[in-house]
Every structure is written in structure tokens, then in C-alpha cells.
Amino acid sequence: MRNRSALAILCGGQLLVVLDQTIVNVALPVIQDDLDFSPAGLAWVVNSYLVGFGGLLLLAGRLGDLIGRVRVLLAGTALFTLASLACGLATAPAPLIAARLVQGVGGALLSAVALGMIVALYPETKERATAIGFFSFVAAVGGALGPIVGGALTQGLSWHWIFFVNVPIGALIVVLAARVLPPERGTGLRSGADLPGAVLVTGGLMLAVYTIVGTTEHGWASVRTLGFGAVAVVLLVAFLARQATAPAPLLPLRLFRSRELSGANAVQVLMIGAMFGFLFLSTLLLQRVFGFGVSRTGFALLPAPVAIAVVTLLISPRLNTRFGEPRVLAAGLGLIFAGFLVLTQVPVDGPYATRMLPAVLLVAIGFGTAIPALTALAMAGARPEDAGLASGVFNTGQQVGGALGLAVLATLAASRTAGSTTPGALLAGYHVAFAVAAALIAVAATLTLTALLPTRRPLPII
């Protein structure tokens, strides 16, 4: 019973973070008008959060191993809650952007240790598969609820309430977590308190995310992108060199000797990059090519999160237990690949139910099948004392892969249209982007079959 209560608290914290990542988008036009944001400045309401979140995930996960995951989770939830309050109280662009950055840091502390705690709570394979499936289900629900809740709060109250709503929820999670979660002491800062390494990796990841999210405005070949990108690469390479020689490394490189962990994270970067592009481009396709309004677009895409939620909660854990995670992951990637192929052939005219819905369902069912298996594989190769770090690595790959995939696919789609806004030209650009997304999934499937799939037994027919 105590484990179930702990799982509910961890899932509640994850729901808070995922919900916040999607709830803001729908309120951006209202925020722009109210606070007099410039178009370029408005993007940093989202980007500042991503910089703080993506840049701190790895360090946050390691801190959980060193000083105790419960402490990091409590600190992250409290910081996230206070920053949400500051966001809601903001009356000018600069305070809102600064508070969003702090909110991202709090979200990183909270999210980075959650998976590691689930691994510690559920050492038995079958129970862990069920717990990870439920965790993935909550994340899918949060992604689906964000636009709906954001629209209702913005229209019914004001945009401030998309942040104020986090305050009572966050406070409740802090109180319950302090009472229910089993205390952890951690291995101690001396076993991995690598301050130079922490500075290098945090600076490198923050600058990398900052560079990627800025490509939409500045382009990939700009001096800004190339310069900041080069500095980010230098910092991350210096971090890896430091970890190879430091007496107490922040990120022990032995962690990547695990085939499961290394392979799963490589697959994740490719899969999440393709999926972020899918969500973004599908929305644009429905509105700009099919002429759907905002509400109709939301309902048109609603089958995707519903399918993901059902599969992750009810089907994927059972498949993982019966067939093993690598086989289930391969099958899920196959379904996603098929969905993207269908999207490359979507015509301009015809009913949505026959021209696009089948592809949306294929991608959603494939993702719901793949993500719990991928998560379990990424955590399976970590030692108990490294579970927080493995969780941080997994979440970092997710954020960087998502930002990079979205930026690349959106740029490809825009470059193919050559500035034309006709439905036919826009659709041609989306077709190219979906084809590249299918190629990313094909590479991910190849990695799964070559690096993760056991060779003793043949693939089952699912």
C-alpha cells in the first residue's frame, strides 16, 4: 500500500511537470497582448523553461543519488511551486521569463529523480513494468489535458491561473511526499561532488538547448547558431574528458557500458525527436491545409493521447512481461514507422476520418507500445546507486531529442514550401518532414534490432 501511495505521489509530480509544458501554449496570444510581448520575446515564455529544464536534468539526477532522491524531489517541487506563483504574479515580460527559467529548474529537480525512485520502489520485473506503464500513462494524460485545461482557465478566469493552479497541487505533493516517501540518505557528496564537471555539463546543456530553440528565429547557418553550438560542443566534450579523469566523477562513464542504457537512450533521442515533430506538424497540417479551427484541431488529435493512454496503461505492461521490452519496442517502432509513411501520402482533400486519422492512430498506438518498454530498458542497466543519474540521462535525452527533432523537422517543412502559403505547397513541406521522421524511426528500429534485441529467440508475431 505504501508503494502505491508513493507511486501516486511520483506520478502526481510528473503530471504537474508535463501539464505545465503544454498548458502554456494555448495562452500565449493572450499573454502577448496583456504584457505587450514582442513576437520574438513571446517564444521565450516557452524557451526559458526548456533551457532551465533541459540543462539541469543530468545534474539533478546525480544529486538525487548523492544527497537522496526524496530531498531533491521535495526541493524541486517546492521551487517549481514558488516559481509558478511568481509566474502568475508577473506583470511584465522580464519577470515572467525569469520565473519560467526558475520553474524549469524546479521541474528538472522533480522529474529527474522520479524514475529512479520507481526503480527502487519496484525491484520485481512485473511490478516495475506495471509501475512504469502507469507513469507513462500519466505523462500521456498530462500532454492531452494541457491544452484543454489551459484554454478553460484562460477563457474562464485569466492566463495567470494557468500558473496559479500549480500552487495548491505542488504544496499538496510536498506535504504528502514528506510523509509517505521512504527517506534516502544517498551515497554522499564526496562520492561524486565534481564541481568543475557540474559547471561544464550544466553550461553545455543549457547552451545547447538555448541554441537549438533559437534556430527557428535565427536559422541553422547563422553566426549565432554556429557560434553558440560550437561553444556548447566544446563544453560537453570538456565535461566528458573531465569525467574520464576525475577521482569522483559526476557522471561515471561506466554507466554507458550497459548496452541497454546506451542503446535505449540513442533510440529515445530519435523517437522523441520524430514524435515532437509529429505533434507540431500535425497541428499545422490540420489548421493550414484542412482549414480546421483551434477547437476542431484539438478534437481531431484527441484520439492520439487517448490511444497512448490506453495502450501504456493496459496493454504495454503485459506485452513487456510476456515478450520482453526489446521485442515490444521494435513492434511499437514498426507501427510508428507505418503511421509516418501514411502521413507522407495524405492528400489535400477528402474526409479526415480516412485521410489522416488512421495515421494518427498508428503513430499513437506505436508510441504507447514503445515508450514504457524504452523507459524500462533505459533504467534496467543502472545500478541502484546510479538510478537517479540514469533517470536524469534518460530525461535529458528526451528533452534534447525533442527540441532538436522539432527544430530540424519544422525547418525542413518550411524550406520545402519556399515561402508559399497555399495548402498544396504547405502539404508538400509536411510530406518531406514526415518522410524524414519516418527515416529517424527506421534508424531507431535498426538500433533496437541490432543493439537491444536478444538473439536467442525469434521475433514474435504481434
Description of the molecule:
Helices cover 81% and strands 0% of the residues. The chain folds into 3 domains: 1-191, MFS general substrate transporter like domains (Growth Hormone, Chain: A, Up-down Bundle); 194-249; 254-462, Growth Hormone, Chain: A, CATH 1.20.1250. The protein contains 19 helices and no strands. The protein has 462 residues and is mostly helical. The radius of gyration is 21 Å and the shape is globular. Helix 3 (39-67) runs antiparallel to helix 9. The chain crosses the membrane at residues 39-60, 72-91, 97-122, 134-153, 159-181, 193-213, 219-241, 262-286, 298-316, 328-348, 360-380, 400-418, 430-453. It is found in: Cell membrane. InterPro entries: EmrB-like, MFS, MFS_dom, MFS_trans_sf.
Would you summarize the structure shown here?
The chain has 19 helices and no strands.
How are the SSEs placed, and which strands pair?
Layout: H1 2-23, H2 28-35, H3 39-67, H4 69-89, H5 93-121, H6 125-156, H7 161-164, H8 166-180, H9 195-213, H10 215-218, H11 223-245, H12 259-289, H13 294-301, H14 303-323, H15 325-343, H16 352-355, H17 357-380, H18 387-417, H19 423-452
Helix pairs in contact: 1-5, 1-6, 1-8, 3-4, 3-5, 3-9, 3-18, 4-5, 4-8, 5-18, 6-14, 6-17, 9-11, 9-18, 12-13, 12-17, 12-18, 12-19, 14-15, 14-17, 15-17, 15-19, 18-19
Number of domains: 3
CATH homologous group name of the largest domain? MFS general substrate transporter like domains
CATH topology descriptor of the largest domain: Growth Hormone, Chain: A
Number of DSSP E strands: 0
Poorly predicted regions are 456-462
- Backbone shape: globular
**CATH architecture assignment of the largest domain:** Up-down Bundle
- Give helix and strand order, one letter per element, not per position: HHHHHHHHHHHHHHHHHHH
CATH class of the largest domain: Mainly Alpha
Q: What is the straight-line distance between the termini? A: 34 Å
